[in-house]
Amino acid sequence: xxxxxxxxxxxxxxxxxxxxxxxxxxxxxxxxxxxxxxxxxxxxxxxxxxxxxxxxxxxxxxxxxxxxxxxxxxxxxxxxxxxxxxxxxxxxxxxxxxxxxxxxxxxxxxxxxxxxxxxxxxxxxxxxxxxxxxxxxxxxxxxxxxxxxxxxxxxxxxxxxxxxxxxxxxxxxxxxxxxxxxxxxxxxxxxxxxxxxxxxxxxxxxxxxxxxxxxxxxxxxxxxxxxxxxxxxxxxxxxxxxxxxxxxxxxxxxxxxxxxxxxxxxxxxxxxxxxxxxxxxxxxxxxxxxxxxxxxxxxxxxxxxxxxxxxxxxxxxxxxxxx
Length: 323
Known about the structure:
The protein has 323 residues and is α/β, with parallel strands linked by helices. Helix content is 38%, strand content 21%.
């Protein structure tokens, strides 16, 4: 028996049939009609039905951005889709006649890395997903942390700068404003404005009319000094956040996913340096590993499928997870 994982993103809905070992047997994707929440439900139902054809499926897991309740059934709030206290699990179950589990997309990605990716050798892992914003997932003693109401591990909204830059969540100074892909572009533009090492960034901006992630990524890969400086600034803030998280969570490993993960050690090195500079009791506190995610774009569907499988008791959980 297999499970189907669905990952609802801002621009696309991805789905896959996933084995117990985390292998993808079949996959599909369609564009997200973010302005029409009913169309999204219809698209998920159609995708599950298409993927289930020819496969024995025990459960369906759906990963969505936003706040999900602790019972993994209701979407309290999601930013890009008009779901407010949406009973998504029941609505999908009624149409699919399968066990359905709903989870936060960062939780799903983090669980996939813990089970089948970079974190499979540890029992305590913290993942930061660096995209337009910053997502987070926490695994402690083999269990995925959700919090009392199910909305825990929103690591992107940990405040690192008192009265800092305003965040979309309504607070100021969140790590999302300093350690995200959007923050990287802001830093790159600031360096381009100064000149000097920012000349290549400025020229790229002049040619394209703006600096986007692909352009800055190309310059980082070419080790342009201005783009590297922006990446180092990003790493500084992420490392500082990890030091604070370490004081609370004490993970054996930090895993970084999202679009900037392709930077590898160019990002990990400044993260490690800033972590050590800000770590309480440095020299007496064991240091975790800092690694890049392995599953990349497949993490959401793989994690959603595995969480659904475990929830349905098709197989026993690893180390007591989700008991």
